[in-house]
């Protein structure tokens, strides 16, 4: 079995994946793999690619790292405390390796480039360091480590999309799955490390994406989430038979429609949108197809135009409000969530108030909220002084969190008394007497088990009460 820990916060709650039995797809070598992933959905998706590559080489999987021959941790560099968390976990693996000297321990993903020398040479915590574009090289790198060497490949690619690899679905409920549609990012937000850790933007060919969606539906999946650092900038220009570029390109709105047309019973979600790129064409496509969920994650980061300029977000306060207005006009029932950073370099109290007023304007369904932490190598670290005191950052964050809680409650209260189409994803965490699933707007819905319906079925649920994070109801015919 394969263990994968997923620590992205969703509606202010952390999620931890569960292990699933897996079957190797190649000739078994008898070697066991354990992999853990931290951070965003892209990391989760990448771990599925890694598992696929190694299972093709005969690796089996285990939920216990102490019995594994190869142990990987898929890392995230977004938050300041991530590095220490990874280091602590590697020290736990180090203890297991002392009892199993043949164990190979490796670091994958976004921390690989920045910390390769520290983890490999200074602290000698790992044998293998692999960046997000080098996973195909893993069998060779593991072989080098088996021979006593320390192996590194952190080269970034302008072409790699892993389009031909069929991901192993980890910790899956058999109902929902991620589909990576692009890799990398061309936006140079001054606070963000992603362009440096994941490379330049490149889009996967639409035919392979549609095929993956079709294969998932044929395998019984009912929901797919299209993933990209900035899905709205998806653009694929196909090559003709002679290798010359055709004039027609496929943009995100067109791709979204292609996936929606796989089957009306296949629900489609996507993440993440960028305010500078999301178009009315995308919104009208969403409005035309019932099976495209009416939910958009639209990170604002700050409500102040000067701070947004320092962040290099390439939009201002008024542009963002106009995009929100367009969403409300074209898809009135659409749920909107966001990201907020408090205490960015030189942010004043008045500028912080602009963020609070933006939140009042939109009234987000939920949000990911953080105090700014300087990340090494970013443009902000090079250009600006991190001069907002920690206690001010935290106080502003508390104000943002408290306001968002009131807005989350406000939004979810609007669902009470209404009927929602819900995909049953499994049993509630609190009771096996209740099912849970999400409505179109990505709100979690909990309702009593009805023996007429099973996991994977769509049901109509009447919302009867709520908390700030959960709608509570019952199935109606």
From the helix content, strand content and strand pairing, which structural class follows?
alpha/beta
| Gap between N and C termini | 39 Å
Residue-averaged pLDDT, rounded? 88
Largest sheet, order of strands side by side? 4-3-5-6-7-8
By DSSP, the count of extended strands is 23
Counted by DSSP, the helix tally is 13
User: What is the share of helical residues?
Assistant: 25-40%
Specify Rg, calculated over alpha carbons: 23 Å
* Oligomerization category of the chains in this entry: single chain
Strand fraction band? 15-25%
Low-confidence stretches: 1-25, 241-246
Largest sheet: 6 strands, parallel
Shape: globular
Attribute tags:
single chain, 32% helix, alpha/beta, globular, 5-stranded mixed beta barrel
Question: Can you characterise this structure?
Answer:
The chain has 477 residues and is α/β, with parallel strands linked by helices. Helices cover 32% and strands 22% of the residues. The chain is built from 13 helices and 23 strands. The strands form 7 sheets. Strands 4-3-5-6-7-8 form a 6-stranded parallel sheet, with helices on both faces. Strands 19-20-21-23-22 form a 5-stranded mixed β-barrel. The chain has a 3-stranded parallel sheet with strand order 9-12-15. The two termini are 39 Å apart.
């Amino acid at each position: 079995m394969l263990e994968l820990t997923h620590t992205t916060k969703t509606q202010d709650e952390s999620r931890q994946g569960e292990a699933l039995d897996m079957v190797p797809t190649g000739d078994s070598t008898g070697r066991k793999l354990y992999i853990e992933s931290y951070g965003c959905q892209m990391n989760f998706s990448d771990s599925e690619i890694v598992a696929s590559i190694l299972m093709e080489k005969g690796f089996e999987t285990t939920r216990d790292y102490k019995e594994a021959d190869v142990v990987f941790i898929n890392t995230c560099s977004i938050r300041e405390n991530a590095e220490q968390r990874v280091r602590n976990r590697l020290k736990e693996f180090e203890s297991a390796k002392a009892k199993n000297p043949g164990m190979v321990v490796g670091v994958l993903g976004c921390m690989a480039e920045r910390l390769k020398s520290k983890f490999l040479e200074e602290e000698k915590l790992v044998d293998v360091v692999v960046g997000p574009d080098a996973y195909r090289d893993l069998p060779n790198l593991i072989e080098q480590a088996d021979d006593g060497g320390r192996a590194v490949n952190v080269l970034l690619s302008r072409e790699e999309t892993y389009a031909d690899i069929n991901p192993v679905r980890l910790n899956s409920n058999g109902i929902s799955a991620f589909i990576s549609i692009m890799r990398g990012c061309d936006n140079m937000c001054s606070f963000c490390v992603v362009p440096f850790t994941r490379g330049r933007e490149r889009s996967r060919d639409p035919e392979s994406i549609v095929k993956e969606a079709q294969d998932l539906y044929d395998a019984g999946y009912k929901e797919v989430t299209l993933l990209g650092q900035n899905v709205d900038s998806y653009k694929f220009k196909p090559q003709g038979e002679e290798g010359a570029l055709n004039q027609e390109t496929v943009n995100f709105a067109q791709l979204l429609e292609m996936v929606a047309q796989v089957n009306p019973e296949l629900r489609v979600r996507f993440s993440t949108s960028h305010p500078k790129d999301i178009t009315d064409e995308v919104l009208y496509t969403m409005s035309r197809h019932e099976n495209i969920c009416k939910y958009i994650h639209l990170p604002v980061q700050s409500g102040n135009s000067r701070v947004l300029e320092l962040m290099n977000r390439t939009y201002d306060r008024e542009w963002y409000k106009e995009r929100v207005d367009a969403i409300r006009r074209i898809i009135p029932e659409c749920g909107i969530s966001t990201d907020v950073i408090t205490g960015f370099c030189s942010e004043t109290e008045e500028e912080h108030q602009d963020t609070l007023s933006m939140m009042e304007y939109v009234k987000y369904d939920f949000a990911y909220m953080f105090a700014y932490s300087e990340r090494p190598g970013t443009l902000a670290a090079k250009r600006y002084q991190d001069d907002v005191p920690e206690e001010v950052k935290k106080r502003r964050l508390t104000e943002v969190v408290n306001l968002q809680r009131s807005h989350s409650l406000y939004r979810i209260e609007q669902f009470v008394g209404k009927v929602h189409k819900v995909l049953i994803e499994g049993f509630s965490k609190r009771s096996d007497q209740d099912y849970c699933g999400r409505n179109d707007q990505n709100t979690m819905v909990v309702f009593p088990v009805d023996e007429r319906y099973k996991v994977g079925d769509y049901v109509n649920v009447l919302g009867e009460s709520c908390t700030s994070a959960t709608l509570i109801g019952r199935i109606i015919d």
